[in-house]
Amino acid sequence: MAKKIQRIGVLTSGGDAPGMNAAIRAVVRACAYYHTDCVGFYRGFQGVIEGDYEELNARSVRNIISRGGTILKSARSREFLTKEGRQKAADTIKKAEIDALVLIGGDGTFRGGKIFNEEHNISVIGVPGTIDNDIFGTNYTIGYDTALNTVVEAIDKIRDTASSHNRLFFVEVMGRDAGFIALNSGIGAGAEEILIPEENLGLERLLFSLERSRRSGKTSSIVVVSEGDKIGKNVFQLAEYVTQNLPDYDARVTVLGHIQRGGSPSCFDRVLASRLCVRAVELLLDGQTNMMVGFINNKVESCSLEDALKSKPDINKDLLRISDILST
Amino acid sequence: MAKKIQRIGVLTSGGDAPGMNAAIRAVVRACAYYHTDCVGFYRGFQGVIEGDYEELNARSVRNIISRGGTILKSARSREFLTKEGRQKAADTIKKAEIDALVLIGGDGTFRGGKIFNEEHNISVIGVPGTIDNDIFGTNYTIGYDTALNTVVEAIDKIRDTASSHNRLFFVEVMGRDAGFIALNSGIGAGAEEILIPEENLGLERLLFSLERSRRSGKTSSIVVVSEGDKIGKNVFQLAEYVTQNLPDYDARVTVLGHIQRGGSPSCFDRVLASRLCVRAVELLLDGQTNMMVGFINNKVESCSLEDALKSKPDINKDLLRISDILST
Amino acid sequence: MAKKIQRIGVLTSGGDAPGMNAAIRAVVRACAYYHTDCVGFYRGFQGVIEGDYEELNARSVRNIISRGGTILKSARSREFLTKEGRQKAADTIKKAEIDALVLIGGDGTFRGGKIFNEEHNISVIGVPGTIDNDIFGTNYTIGYDTALNTVVEAIDKIRDTASSHNRLFFVEVMGRDAGFIALNSGIGAGAEEILIPEENLGLERLLFSLERSRRSGKTSSIVVVSEGDKIGKNVFQLAEYVTQNLPDYDARVTVLGHIQRGGSPSCFDRVLASRLCVRAVELLLDGQTNMMVGFINNKVESCSLEDALKSKPDINKDLLRISDILST
Amino acid sequence: MAKKIQRIGVLTSGGDAPGMNAAIRAVVRACAYYHTDCVGFYRGFQGVIEGDYEELNARSVRNIISRGGTILKSARSREFLTKEGRQKAADTIKKAEIDALVLIGGDGTFRGGKIFNEEHNISVIGVPGTIDNDIFGTNYTIGYDTALNTVVEAIDKIRDTASSHNRLFFVEVMGRDAGFIALNSGIGAGAEEILIPEENLGLERLLFSLERSRRSGKTSSIVVVSEGDKIGKNVFQLAEYVTQNLPDYDARVTVLGHIQRGGSPSCFDRVLASRLCVRAVELLLDGQTNMMVGFINNKVESCSLEDALKSKPDINKDLLRISDILST
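^ inputs. structure came back:
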């Protein structure tokens, strides 16, 4: 019979994402509501290894819902990848009398949680928190919506300059393995072209399309490029290639970089984080483990961590079509 | 046999919403992509009645995706509610050789479109554009996500003052018949209480809950109140009632008002508007009429206008529960 | 001979303003830099009376520069208006071995500081922190620039709706005694008319001007009204009066309210707060008292509290002229 | 005797800056107010050379006050640097019967205007519009305040990530020849170090200071670097150098790039643009030429273009001191 859960630990791990604080707050307050103790570990699994944690109550998380980053800090712990590291972590868990963990992060985090559960039989529930939206088992990850708004606002600003100077801008956005940010922010920003890792349009097509749009009277253009775009050139090489082949164009590059991870979370991300984390706590109290909570078809759902890790969500091909139609 | 659609009209009607320009742009560009003419009517159905329209092409809608409001302006036409008004509108449509209409607005707009179709056999497709999110047949209306962000940012600011002065703030948000904005923005802003038209908590409970939260050491509180809240008092009376009964509280009122309708649309609303309107044009070209496009379970779908008008979406009761848990 | 200053207290008092946290941070860090102790009193003079304070060091103020509100909270202490209240405050000061105070607030705060100094010989320096910009002895008060941006962004949103619906909007902004916010934000937002306490244009002129602008083809208008406007009607009565006399207009009212006090401070306010507060600490360490620091002609200056309290800055008449010219 | 000015041309030239549209609007409306014709040239002097212009009236500039970029577009015309180019421009001016020009831009623009006036006796008034704030004869250039806010908001976001991951961030901001943006935004963002072209702190000092701040318990740091910083390394080399010497640090680089030029202008920039441009038109109508308008000591002033071009404003050394004190 499952042990009664009386004390839950929470941590944020991997790249930070807006809404992680809203998620922490929801875990803490759901624990308070259900008269369950809650402790927060600092710097992800590294804090578990080092025993670096703090008791959290409703007051500890006051007014953090609107803040970017994570009050628990985040890290990618190399030590936790080793058996010894995980043993130390298990020792902390035991000593601190913690019954279960809520893990807020991406698939690296969940993989760590799954193996930790297998080796040391500690209940874990994963909550998808990453700007990349590349987690199977949820339509939206916490932080993704905010990152899209940040990117779109930045491109709106670049558009001011592009239009004023009749320029071509290459804007690199985050997403090493997945083009979700590029594709959605590109449509949202009205980009003329969008280059993503999932689809290799080829340089020819890019040149062709830019030439056509110039001939049609367009004097400025925005090309959104995902970090991990498949064309095999980085964004600076890409810009150079294009200007060599289309000398009419005055091309510039902007790499948006880390501003995409920060900022006050959008309402969507705050509500998503709140709903997922209440459910995460409830699942633990209900004796569940090794699950991930997600938002599927407008409802909070859960799946096994195994399923969540088995595959990657597909890019929505229809969005590529929409982008094509609208950049006419 | 259905007539081939060669010329499509588009209009925005009812209360304006952020993303309406993104929607207009998508209609115009989808038409251009499918080699179909497109005209824009000004001030909703009133412009149809008065023959106030303009040819639109891809260039007409350049750089409008990021702008609030609607370049076609919006109105609630009283004349269109009369048979004579609709006859005049039909005359315009005939004279301008328009084969079909895309109607961006709320249920008033759709009701008008439906009767117009019945009387004059003009193909119409509705696109849900309203900040209220009160349309059956779509999980999200265009403008709703942006309005939520506007409200949450405003309450974040009010929270600064509330915390600094240990005050109780009543913040009235839009939503005469539906509490969607209040409920979601209330959770997003971490409101202590949320009052919505769908649920009458009663004044007793409000007093009780505020007293409890003060005793627990909370020195400031935010109560989000929907315009149409059922307690039967307006927000100023509510504040007065509370201060009379809980003299400890220093209470203030802010009515957010029309800032909720404006502003640059969020990425979500821009992508939603783009997807729905491409589909709207494609449905018309496919010979469909009397339909509404919507976003259901993360997919673009369509239903009959009749179904869309038959009922109202329910408030998500689970969100009330979440709010309760998190305002601990 | 003046006692050496070894321990400085800081407080925020009166209405809160964005940039107060940047000011507190600068006081604390300047103290650290000059090896001087620093304590923060909560809720303005009330915290001095009650002995409610905390030691502050460089770490206590980490990452607060970007936050609205004030971590020390603010209040208007009625007790401090009495001799007894001030005696209690002096007792705290003595007991806590505090040598001097930095007072961040408006003229009520400075008046309190001046009398406190006279009665109990405690060194005080005032720092102008209020959104109203109504302090003599500085061209800018901390918080004013941020409030202007908040108002202008809000009116930009209202303009979206006003244009879309051809409406007339009356927007009430803060400034009970001074029209600084109304005048500058009105010009910044491109308002058609600006009503301020310093100037009574009269209702006739307003009607005349609105009529003229309608005739010239303007279909929407924004009138910015200062809380304390001299026409002697509140903004709702004003709107009613106008619609009765100009029935063509569809008029609406928005009272911006407390969102004007909150929000992350602008760069200007953060730098201003930083510069003024470093100077405040240096003045104290230099043996000065009863002074206010200010920003005059692009330089940090200081004047006696007496001079600061003697008069009120005049509204810039040239700005009224500019508004007139630009609303053509 | 000076010819009566009956027709004024306006153009924006050089790098675009937020507030240029507010400036254009003010020129156009001031002309309308004084019953003077106004035409706008596209793409700076290039549009004058090519005769690419449009009549502008009060309606043409409706609702542009809030928009970034410039509706007249901007460019750096190489042709105008030649005598032949300027002759063509003078021909346009004559043919279009334009009596005077308002030139919105930086010192390149003013230099062009001055020589154009000398060769062809056309009245010109310069208005300082550039984000760099590097113009002698004004305390603030149009666009500078907005750029500072954009930078500070971006660094606030990066701070979220830096704090969450205990990282060191190097953030490169604009300012090839002048450190104004770096210095003010660095103070506003609470940067630990600021590197500007005007001052070579040396790499030693940077290492020393970072080491000290790490030892004092600071786990994350922001270093703001001006494009044209004197250390003689670009920001990537700088980051590499630091990580080689301080291997404890996990360092990242963000180059903010062109987002700094765009965006809706701040209230300050809108009011500044409005005031300067009304004055520019009034000076022309008053028979003046070869002047630049500026904002000095809180007043609109003017100086000769010659004086404006003679020197560069000095960096405020006191701000370096403030930065030093506050990054304790």
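The first helix of chain D runs from residue 20 to 33. Chain D has two domains: 7-143+265-310, 145-261.
thumbs up if we can close this ticket
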